[in-house]
Amino acid sequence: MKLRSVLTAVALVLGALFAPGFGALTHATDAHAVTKISHATATSMFRSSGITWSSSGGCSDRNNSTCTSFEQLNLATAQGAQTLKSASGCALNITGGTETGHASGTYSHWNGYKLDFSKYTCLGSYIKNTFTYIGLRGDGAPQWKSGAGNVYADEGNHWDVTFYNCGGC
What we know:
This protein is of the alpha+beta class. It is built from 4 helices and 9 strands. Helix 2 (39-49) runs parallel beside helix 3 (75-88). The chain is globular, with a radius of gyration of 15 Å. Residues 1-29 have low confidence and may be disordered.
């Protein structure tokens, strides 16, 4: 077995072990160590699940706000997107990742917890009909919470999703 395969397997196990609600931690808001992945690893995971991504700048530079980068994305966030894709059966297109230019905070894009998704009718219907409406975010965006604790905010022209865990992967 190749070393990379072994390391990937270990990363997946550790990601599951420390995912809130599934492993050693029991609440979505517990701070914990996370497994970070590279842009190349994330795009490989997304490609294998049929998830697309796009960038207004046509680039992947983490330090350029017009790019869509997955550098330093949390493994559980990438897995959460894969879970969303398989559970919903909807097309998913990621328009925002870990690049600069998003709001700051512990559970932020920069820190690897959030992805932005294009608004498609299928995805919106799935979120609104499957998850629990939890009210408006401080900025007025309506929010839904999955059974796993991940939060989906409708920001008007896209879905802003906070993945505290992989969503039951």
